Amino acid sequence: MNLKFRQGILIKRISIAVISILALTAQPVNAADPLPNAFFNHLGSKYLANPGVIFIDSSNESVLYEQSSKSLRPPASVIKLVSTTAIAMTLDSSTVFKTAIYQGDRPGAFIIVGENDPWITSSTRSRDRFKRAYLPALLNAALKQRNNLKVISVQYSGVSSSDINYARKVMRKTSSIKARPYPGKIDTSTITGEKIAEITSPKLSTLIRFTNLYSDNNLSQKLAQLAAIRNGFPGNKSGINLVFQNKLAELGVNTAGMYLEDASGLSQQNRISAATVSQLLLKIRSEPKLNVVYNSLPVSGISGTLANRYQKSAPDAIGLVKAKTGSIKNTVALAGYATSGSTEYVFVVIANQTGRTRGSQDAARGAIDKMLGSITKPPVIPATTTTDTSTVSN
């Protein structure tokens, strides 16, 4: 055996040893059921490019794996978990929101009193497709009852100026509506004119489900504004940040560095860490008030924004992942829960260097789905025992 041949064998042995060591160190420390190599292979996809990642065993809250989990990143629509948590911690899930129109103190004058209904719209498409509360219906009812007036004035409270202006635009072909905010808060018991019409939203639980299931940006923003207002904060960006900090602190979630430009996730300036999101997910699973948020999440290959995922990328994981999706320019994110037999993982993946093309972002989503597919297993259903309740007569 010549020297070069022996050196070659030695180099190969060293290389194998180094690879083995790297594989071992890549596994989470003290994990009873280590994450498989396939998990790390997909995590290493070039389309994910150093994401913020954390995986937790929810049964004992032990961290199985984390990577850049405390770095602050724009999370895209994953931020809707925070928005829906804030409103679920503020109001009962059975709450409904009413908006009514009253006759004013003179003909052609009306008063609209609302409860900041997040479900309200002036879009006929949203009205017809999703049965949204339709604001122009109130105005039309007033016009019709008052001999189809063409010019009216409206004072309003508990309805946003943007919603009022949108309704005015919708109706401008048939009528001219002058509108201004009511000075101060309206006590409906002091209104002497009759109530002409009223619209009511579905229960808050339905609104939360719609927000997370279909990632509705406008609804998420409105829910956050409502949470801020109901907690005594202004319904603007400052108030939204305050109520988010307040409600997450109430749950014991560390919000270090968290800052939000909006509550929809559209802004590139939003900042939150994967670690903060993971702590929130653990609370969503354990806090009874937040069961409504957990139940609102899309399911892999079955519902909402996950309905068309996993079908090809990880078919064995269909029905086993329950998570909030997120996607904006250069960012793909997914945060939620993955079932692996008797274990439920809490996970967060926020990748901010995916590129902006549809192809690169789809590849990033595929890598995340395959990564989760490498660890999911059907749930373990406990065996049931039957008891013979028959009696024997003598």
From TrEMBL:
Molecular function via GO: serine-type carboxypeptidase activity
The entry's keywords: Hydrolase
One Gene Ontology term from the biological process aspect of the record: peptidoglycan metabolic process
What the entry lists under Pfam families is as follows: Peptidase_S13
Family as reported in the entry's similarity comment: Belongs to the peptidase S13 family.
Tell me the protein's name.
Unannotated protein
Organism, per UniProt?
A: freshwater metagenome
